[in-house]
From TrEMBL:
Family the UniProt entry places it in: Belongs to the R-transferase family.
EC number from the UniProt entry: 2.3.2.8
Pfam families named in the record: ATE_C, ATE_N
Protein name: Arginyl-tRNA--protein transferase 1
Protein origin, superkingdom: Eukaryota
GO cellular component: cytoplasm
InterPro entries attached to this UniProt entry: Acyl_CoA_acyltransferase (IPR016181), Arg-tRNA-P_Trfase_1_euk (IPR017137), N-end_Aminoacyl_Trfase (IPR030700), N-end_Aminoacyl_Trfase_C (IPR007472), N-end_Aminoacyl_Trfase_N (IPR007471)
Enzyme kind, highest EC tier: transferase
Domain N-end rule aminoacyl transferase C-terminal: 154-291
Signal peptide range: none
Record field: catalytic activity: an N-terminal L-alpha-aminoacyl-[protein] + L-arginyl-tRNA(Arg) = an N-terminal L-arginyl-L-aminoacyl-[protein] + tRNA(Arg) + H(+)
Length: 436
């Protein structure tokens, strides 16, 4: 077993601001900063309910948070657009075609064809999603450009306008630093100069710019996980173009891209049933939710089955599960506030201890005083040189590896490892090294 991921001291944040219901203390998460994370391993974390914000990876505590968040994935390969989705695409195409020349005339769904049908007042041709969604990009007016995940002035101006007008963010909080931390930095150590071919084979983090008449009107922030899925990180648009329904359109564009890349799934982030404005994620079908109570292999159920469970679930138990799962009540949890919360999908203290004692070992990584030594002997030094200068990149001088019972120091390390093992499970825990 090798140490594939390098993370900071992980921990439980028991009181955080919730952006969905605006509770000041209602959000509870377990998380860590990742200095290094192979994208395949990140894919496994997605299937354990994790998401990322820059290099910070977190998993919500569904039992104790105000707004339980469920990982949702769409079967992009089987996607059938709803009436509303078709309308969004048609409206956008109509807008683009109203004053545009079409580059390609070679198919039946061209803008010229749409114009003709519009004047005839009939539209009996079956709707072809993959064709219709690409149509706008055939005009000389609209373009989606693949961009390196770096900050530029036009991206930052768009972000500022979007955060202030749509999310009512305090202007002082919308900085270049926050853009870079949230939307550029990532733990994947990818090469620069991305291409769709490279995103398909190596994966990585990238931006897509939506340009109308050469002006950036929207930006999609995405991760590509080879052979697995396209994962949406964020989307922003210019509020002057609200009439184009760019939020809905981008999801449809991303579903089409998922199919082009040959992936089965499109991950939309979290579905939050208790938050009406976040239920729209369930409008894309067919979708599954990750059962939050599974502690080993990921278990998914169709959204519809969960919606039944939400209706039936009693109010004392705010999260719903379809698995036959009982919350563990055992164990001496006095050392860990987190493990005493009985978070679904997380092992109890005693269970984690049992797993820990059966593990081959653990990794505890010691940073160098002046930060100049590489992670391990076979690791390239240049792994840590990239452009995100405000992200801390540790160089390490020592890797401690040994049986769990030999963890040095006080109880704090031991508890930290137990919490990590309890959250990641026995399969993933050995892949992690913790910097202390
Ligand atoms: Zn909330």
């Amino acid at each position: 077993m090798s140490c594939q991921a390098v993370i900071s001291f992980p921990g439980y944040r028991s009181q955080g601001h919730c952006g969905y219901c605006e509770s000041a203390t209602g959000s509870k998460i377990y998380g860590f900063s990742a200095f290094k994370m192979p994208i395949q391993l990140y894919g496994e974390l997605l299937d354990k309910g994790f998401r990322r914000s820059g290099t910070f990876l977190y998993r919500p505590d569904l039992a104790n948070s105000c707004c339980p968040q469920y990982t949702i994935r769409l079967h992009a390969d089987e996607f059938k657009p709803s009436k509303e989705a078709k309308k969004v695409i048609k409206n956008f195409n109509k807008h683009i075609c109203s004053n545009s020349n079409v580059k390609t005339e070679n198919n039946d769904n061209t803008i010229e064809e749409l114009k003709k049908r519009k004047t005839k007042g009939s539209d009996n041709k079956p709707f072809d999603f993959d064709e219709a969604i690409k149509l706008s990009e055939k005009s000389d007016q609209f373009e989606i450009r693949l961009l390196d995940p770096k900050i530029t002035e036009e991206k930052f101006q768009l972000y500022k306008k979007y955060q202030q007008l749509i999310h009512k963010d305090d202007p002082e909080s919308v900085t270049r630093g926050s853009f870079k931390r949230f939307l550029c930095s990532n733990p994947f150590h990818q090469k620069s100069h991305i291409s769709y071919e490279r995103l398909k084979t190596e994966g990585g983090h990238f931006h897509q710019g939506y340009y109308l008449d050469g002006k950036l009107i929207a930006l999609a922030v995405l991760d590509s996980l080879p052979g697995k899925c396209l994962s949406s990180v964020y989307f922003m648009y210019d509020p002057d173009y609200t009439h184009l329904d760019l939020g809905k359109l981008s999801a449809l564009k991303e579903i089409a891209l998922t199919r082009e890349l040959g992936y089965k799934y499109y991950y939309l982030g979290y579905y939050i049933h208790t938050c009406i404005k976040m239920r729209y994620k369930g409008n894309y079908k067919p979708s599954d939710l990750l059962d939050p109570t599974s502690t080993s292999k990921p278990v998914w159920y169709p959204l519809e089955q969960f919606q039944d469970a939400f209706e039936k679930s009693n109010l004392k138990n705010k999260y719903a599960t379809i698995l036959n799962w009982k919350c563990a009540k055992d164990g001496d949890t006095s050392d860990s506030e987190y493990l005493s919360q009985h978070v679904p999908g997380v092992l109890s203290y005693k269970e984690a201890e049992k797993v820990a004692n059966n593990l081959n070992g653990y990794y505890l990584l010691e940073p160098d005083d002046n930060g100049t030594v590489s992670i391990s002997e076979d690791e390239e030094e240049d792994e840590y040189t990239d452009e995100f200068d405000d992200v801390y990149r540790p160089k390490l001088r020592k890797i401690h590896f040994g049986p769990f019972s030999h963890i040095p120091g006080n109880k704090v390390f031991k508890t930290m490892f137990l919490e990590l093992i309890a959250t990641l499970g026995p399969e993933l825990a050995p892949c992690f090294g913790v910097v202390y």
